[in-house]
Write a structure and sequence with these properties.
This protein is mainly beta. The chain has strands at residues 2-6, 9-12, 17-24, 32-38, 45-50, 57-59, 67-72, 77-82, 91-98, 112-113, 117-122. The strands form two sheets. Strands 2, 4, 5, 6, 9, 10 and 11 form a seven-stranded mixed β-sheet that branches. A four-stranded antiparallel β-sheet has the order 1-3-8-7, with no helix packed on it.
């Protein structure tokens, strides 16, 4: 199983970035997909998740209204559109695949992980 995250980079406060995560080696449409992030010196934290069929999504309060998770099961890809970026959004962002409850924010509930992509937001 491989999850390949891309799309990170440098953005200004208030700017936007779109992350992508391409999956292979698994039945993508059977897995819930999540995005997590980890800032230096902090624990990995849940950001957003989308159910296997795409009908339900779940966000941490801090990104509601700013970030949008979506997926294209035909392309085996999950996306994270990040708007109104803030310096505190700076972190390495990871995509993950799992079959536990969509509402479970624990990183331990996900089975497969991508390598991470750096997002840096300048103030």
């Amino acid at each position: 199983v491989q999850l390949q995250a891309s799309g990170g980079g440098l953005a200004e406060t208030g700017g936007s970035l779109r992350l992508s995560c391409a999956a292979s080696g698994l039945t993508f449409s059977s897995y819930n997909m999540g995005w997590f992030r980890q800032a230096p010196g902090k624990e990995r934290e849940f950001v957003a998740a989308i159910i296997w069929g795409g009908g339900n999504t779940y966000y941490v309060d801090d990104v509601k209204g700013r970030f949008t998770i979506s997926r294209d099961n035909a392309k085996n890809t999950v996306y994270l559109q990040m708007d109104s970026l803030r310096p505190e959004d700076t972190a390495v962002y990871y995509c993950a695949a799992g079959r536990s409850s969509l509402w479970d924010k624990s990183y331990k509930s996900y089975d497969y992980w991508g390598q991470g992509t750096q997002v840096t937001v300048s103030s």
